[in-house]
Amino acid sequence: MPWGVHGICLVSGRGLRRRGGPYKTEPATDLTCWRLHVEEGRHQWQYVASGEGCDQQQTGLEAHSVGLDTSKFFPDLPKAYTAQRASLNG
């Protein structure tokens, strides 16, 4: 049975936690302790407990993937109304 990041079954729909939308729920774990490891193209999420290196800061991709605020990783850019501004923002 396929399981999600938080150990919740994704197929049956039972116990499915939805964090977004009008009915936001509290996360089941500390989202700042999730780390993404990539080895030979294989992506694997690992939960790092408090004393095992959780104090190491997440990357912008990790924070974005688990739904945390990414403003400290990426600067606020002006809204792009032209193709040139969009390319400069990129």
Residue ranges: pLDDT <50 for 5 or more in a row? 8-16
Strand content: 5-15%
Described by strand count, sense and barrel closure, the largest sheet is:
2 strands, antiparallel
Overall pLDDT confidence? 75
Helix content: 10-25%
User: Radius of gyration, rounded?
Assistant: 17 Å
How does this structure look, described?
This protein is 14% helix and 13% strand. With 90 residues, the chain is α+β, with helices and mostly antiparallel strands. The chain has a domain of 59 residues. The protein has a two-stranded antiparallel ribbon. It is extended and about 45 Å long. The N and C termini lie far apart (39 Å). About 10% of the residues have low confidence.
Explain the layout of strands and helices.
Blueprint: E1 34-39, E2 42-47, H1 60-65, H2 83-89
Summary, kept brief:
It is built from two helices and two strands; from the N terminus they run ββαα. With 90 residues, it is α+β, with helices and mostly antiparallel strands.
Core attributes:
90 residues; alpha+beta; extended; two-stranded antiparallel sheet
